[in-house]
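Why this split exists: single-chain examples teach little about how molecules sit against one another. For that reason, every record in the complexes split bundles all components of an assembly together and asks for one structure covering all of them. Below is a record exactly as it appears in the raw files.
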Amino acid sequence: MNSQINRENKNIITMLTISIRGDKMPSSPIRKLVPYSEEAKSRGIKVYHLNIGQPDIKTPEVALAAAKNADLKVIEYSHSAGIESYRRKLAKYYQNIGIDIDHNNLLVTTGGSEAITFAFLSCFNPGDEVIIPEPFYANYNGFAIAAGVNVKPIESFIEDGFALPPIEKFEDLITDKTKGIVICNPNNPTGYLYSEDELNSLRELVIKHDLYLFSDEVYREFCYDGHEHISVMHLKGIENNVVMFDSVSKRYSECGVRIGALVTKNSEVLNTALKFAQARLSPPTFGQIIAEASLDTPKSYFDEVQKEYISRRDFLVAGLNKIPGVYSPKPKGAFYTVAKLPVDDSDKFCQWILSEFDYEGQTVMMAPASGFYSTPGRGKDEVRIAYVLKKEDLAKALIVLEKALEAYPGRVGA
Amino acid sequence: MNSQINRENKNIITMLTISIRGDKMPSSPIRKLVPYSEEAKSRGIKVYHLNIGQPDIKTPEVALAAAKNADLKVIEYSHSAGIESYRRKLAKYYQNIGIDIDHNNLLVTTGGSEAITFAFLSCFNPGDEVIIPEPFYANYNGFAIAAGVNVKPIESFIEDGFALPPIEKFEDLITDKTKGIVICNPNNPTGYLYSEDELNSLRELVIKHDLYLFSDEVYREFCYDGHEHISVMHLKGIENNVVMFDSVSKRYSECGVRIGALVTKNSEVLNTALKFAQARLSPPTFGQIIAEASLDTPKSYFDEVQKEYISRRDFLVAGLNKIPGVYSPKPKGAFYTVAKLPVDDSDKFCQWILSEFDYEGQTVMMAPASGFYSTPGRGKDEVRIAYVLKKEDLAKALIVLEKALEAYPGRVGA
């Protein structure tokens, strides 16, 4: 580099500011404790990661083989909407689960996250309101802040197993700024699976008030105890209102490929989202190759995975409910549960257990539930636990949690 | 799926609207003609793609091998800021080109696109203004619209080879809403390489008005004729003002991996960007593995690539200037040139050449320059041409272009 570049190093006082939305942007409740867990690990402590939906389930062989066998000479951009062969095969996957679309009704996105961002940018003006049953996936807050949208939470409660609040509660929140409702089904963080009646109530509400209905269905394959998944794409007469978010991350345990989808029969929404997609050029090429191959995953893989999750859930929930002062409902889907703990403040507790506690050289990382609520003060005695580890690790984590609750200075209640 | 779902199919009239920013969002000038080129191909016509910065240069062997040899059992999320080993190695790459940073001064992003989006979201409030010399990379418009930022273009001209406009022109545009300046160096679409004097002028301006200076340097390796690249990260005394965008897409001809970086010594900006990064979880894992391996690409690869591009540029620019009525400056960097054509409207011409013209079964796809300007009416007689094809293809494309200009009904001038 040229040495004549101006090298004066005055101390310049700048007034540069961070944006208001940047300030408002929350740290991820799932990831914000990472420095404490790294610090614990550096002290030689074994940390059980129940904080994040990163399963230990093996990615399907067909997916891993596709990456190895991709014989590319140049790793090129794909079409902004995704590789056409993948879009066509993905459309067939939806057709097979009774969703009547073709490849022109979907856009391949960089993870489900990008699908949500594109939908919010395409459908909402800054200042518009979106109703979301809480607790909800914490990053909805982030996507809403990025898009300037105001989240209006509607409370659901652990005592009801986090069922959909009565429709009147939604009606109470609707203003002339309300443009949509977001649900996550099966739900992250609660594991709640919406019933047909609940979805039909939402359908009526959406028709009555002419709202968008966004549904995050990335845990579709994780429904237990014989319950069937009903997609918002199955609801008739609101095809124009419905936008579905999807992702291959959880379905095939390939979170790192970053491939999702935005699915809608509303062509205006899709065409608008495509303009945002063109600006970012294309979703990851390797991810798409892997995702396309993943569609050939044999049914036996899902049967095994489902058996594994059911057994983990049953084990975890039973174990949690045996710990004095702890309560967890039994979720019907996904691989999370929200548990109530006898603590003053779960943010403090989750930090304390990493930084000041260990039991036989082990500790547990959980996601404080406050980050999944937007009503101030809610979730302070709850945590989200992901049952993404094998049972023997869950067993050890439960022991650590029990011992920690006994030792925690901020313990409350009986 | 359950057959009792409400299947009434009333014709519901909805008032659902698309957002204002969604309406404002431009179609990509690089990609909007894709349907016409697909249609031409379906008629059996060979289309030379000079519209997009998708080089035909082979991805380095070390990169392709890394994908094949990645022995993953589970394709997991990475850290939101990127895989640490990659961040450390990437920091070394910057150190080697005189940029004094470490791995804590950078964030791995999903392409350069995401770095720009995160920076705009982190630094700007809706309604803030950013000055960008035009013509500029068209997608800056898209990122600005998504963030609610107003682009104030400052005109540069083909007659001056698209040099940086005089600093007084910047001063004229600065208001109390002005928060930053964006440059692209070497420039897309013009291939212009900023001089040390120009960068020092920007440095003074940034100090005087306390502005952010964003610099897109994804074509750093493509500087010709002995000219050295000077990064904004080399400028002293404005470390807090500077945010650099980078990408491996062009450097290693691996556009599809979607790996970029946001680099800044301003820790407030970096920490804010990290919150947006956490919301989208992580950049693509395979892309990061490939990008990390790419850092071992031997120097001989770049020497060959550079030789190839110089030879293509010289060939293309000479060929363009031989066509009656056509003018192209000789760019010092990147792999684009903006050429002036004797046409009424380059949008119409670029569509016409795909849909109504062929020469011996061949045609050419170019990017109309209007999309790279934000001043209305500018660029209507210009196109961006990417010299991303080998010389024999460029030769054929030049013949097609010459013949097309002879036949085009909207030809103007001599």
